[in-house]
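[Q] Does anyone have a clean structure-token version of this?
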Amino acid sequence: MYLLAIDWFFIIEKLLLIVCIVTLSMVVAMYSTYGERKVAGFFQDRLGPNRAGPFGLLQPFADAGKLFFKEEIIPLASSKFLFILGPALAMITALLTSAVIPWSTPLSIGGRDVPLQIADINVGILFVFAAVSVGVYGIMIGGWASNNKFSLLAGIRGASQMVSYELPMGLALLGVLLFVGDLKMSSIVQSQIDNGWHVIYQPLGFIVFFVCALAECNRTPFDLPEAESELNFGYHQEYSSMKLGFYLFAEYINMFISCVIMTCLFFGGYDIPFVDEASWGLNQNLLSLIGFAVIMAKALFFVFVFMWIRWTVPRFRFDQLMNLGWKKLIPLALVNMIISAAVILWLKK
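[A] Here you go.
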């Protein structure tokens, strides 16, 4: 009787959605490596990868093959279990953050509304921060378990950087949450569809959040844990084969998911500005696909901006990085929160 009460359609829908989102994240991460080198080539007046396949489009598969077939080396002096756990933890936490993202309006399949969101939990944005905060352990464990002084120093840098920038990121987000009054990601997107994008009301909050997102993803100018000229290769110096691939893929997945979350928080998610999609007279599934294309276009634009910044802005010194986080961004985020609270109180009178 208990088995009959299980909604198997619901379980199958969620499993298929998980597979699709994981696949999407992996494909975007894979081609972000290609896009990164093409953007670098453009800025440096060269072609970038152009040998593997037409226009070099098969280059990510060549890179994946190289990593898969490369000899795997585990240092004798390392802590083997933790050495393996580090990249696995980095990859898992990178993929977990996509679970609460509303990718578009629901699809209609067999008379059922299928939401394009794995879990619409009532603490959605807190779940994202929880997963991101666990991700730092992947860097710390990898740096410590390698038994290499450069890896350990990079791991300590990464941990202190992520802890320092999570605080202003959370404070910058409070302005948005004060306007919405809800922690659900779907509610945050719906609020922008009804009242306008949050970037209009929270420009300072967006700037702080964007800078912190660069730091959380270890992107230039905040790539101190991977500062090649200072730390040889950073926290994954002793890694090879697909363990190294997991660390590199996790960074690109984090960048993509960060851009999607930024889109949902400040740029309306799958909303098209100044357009009432319902007036188009299209069926529900077509509107859902258009919404998915819109959120992907916004996110990929921010991915391009992340790459653009990498090849145009020099790396900070570590003391500059810490001063920016603690002495500049936190006060700005607090000012933004106080102004937002004052405006909301004034509007309620």
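[Q] Thanks! Anything notable?
[A] The chain has two domains: 24-69, 75-348.
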